[in-house]
Write a structure and sequence with these properties.
Blueprint (H helix, E strand, L loop, with lengths): L1 E5 L4 H8 L6 E4 L13 E5 L8 E4 L2 E5 L4 H5 L6 H10 L2 H6 L2 H7 L5 H8 L3 E5 L3 E4 H7 L6 E8 L3 E7 L9 E7 L5 E6 L6 E6 L5 H8 L10 H24 L2
Parallel strand pairs: 1-3, 2-3
Antiparallel strand pairs: 4-5, 5-8, 6-7, 6-8, 9-10, 10-11, 11-12
The chain binds flavin-adenine dinucleotide.
């Protein structure tokens, strides 16, 4: 439960709160997860006045401020169309208007579509202070903050990303999701989700050979109350093959 609420006007004021030491301060994004928290005596520091609600494009990278809402990101033209669809699947319009990208990534689990796609795209979290970068894979495997709060999320736009999911209804949380990102150099990164506490990195390699085997291996322990591991392995391989076929035929038509 939220016991104390602070809304600093500058990063320095916020830093003073986080470094005070006598209480446990946590960053507040949109509050959609925190306001439901059953943890005792939360002291929240609202980040909304720190100017982190902007998206900048520098070269091929989008620098997404941590308090940019999911809806703002969806409406940002330079991001790939596939990602817009993934954001729609991640939350309803009301929630997209409230939830921030920073809060979303911190509270995401294995069934969070945008987190799965960002895992494939190898997003980088930039922490405050010191602008400490942390790869999204590192964040999801350790969940250890590199600073007081996430300032921004860096996303490479110079890649092709695709996403496939199976779920009870089209907008429901995935039972299995596969996202594939391909760099102009040939690098390929595949992430899976639809189960577990975090998106799973299936493969990060210089080319796509062995990708089907990698999917099968990565999903060998994915069984739960929603689906067996065998089902996820079979569907995961179909999704990857479908995505690679699609990108091969679009390469040919260029
Ligand atoms: C009704 C409902 C339905 C939902 N359905 C789905 C769903 O279908 N799929 C799905 O994936 N998710 C779903 N969610 C979860 C939702 O995506 C999260 O509640 C939301 O993304 C959290 O974002 P927020 O900005 O509101 O975070 P907050 O509630 O503000 O914070 C969440 C966590 O992130 C931390 N945090 C926030 N900002 C930062 C920052 N900048 N740096 C470091 N830490 C930070 C907070 O301290 C807290 O631990 C649902 C939530 C609700 C309420």
């Amino acid at each position: 439960m939220i016991r104390e609420y602070y809304r600093p006007k500058t990063a320095l004021e916020a830093e003073l709160l986080f470094s005070a030491g006598d209480k446990k301060f946590v960053p507040l994004g949109g509050g959609s997860a925190l306001s439901r928290s059953k943890q005792e005596d939360l002291c929240v520091v609202d980040l909304r006045d720190l100017g982190l609600n902007r998206i900048e494009v520098i070269g091929h990278k989008a620098i997404i401020g941590a308090t940019v809402t999911l809806q703002q990101l969806l409406e940002f033209d330079p991001i790939p169309l596939v990602l817009k669809d993934v954001i729609r699947k991640s939350a309803t319009l009301n929630l997209r208007n409230q939830a921030t990208v920073g809060g979303y990534l911190v509270s995401a689990d294995g069934r969070s579509p945008l987190a799965i796609a960002m895992m494939a795209m190898d997003a980088v979290l930039i922490w405050h202070p010191n602008q400490q970068p942390q790869s999204i894979g590192d964040w999801f495997s350790l969940r250890q903050p590199r600073g007081f709060w996430i300032n921004a999320i860096q996303l490479n736009l110079n890649l092709d990303v695709d996403y496939e999911q199976v779920s009870r209804t089209p907008m429901d949380q995935p039972i299995l999701a596969i996202s594939v990102a391909r760099w102009p150099s040939g690098r390929i990164r595949v992430a899976a989700g639809g189960f577990g506490n975090a998106p799973l990195l299936v493969l990060d390699g210089p080319e796509d050979s062995g990708v089907l085997e990698a999917v099968k291996n990565a999903l060998s322990d994915s069984g739960d109350e929603w689906a067996s591991a065998e089902y996820r392995q079979a569907v995961g391989q179909v999704f990857v093959r479908r995505i690679l076929d699609k990108s091969a035929s679009s390469d040919q038509s260029k």
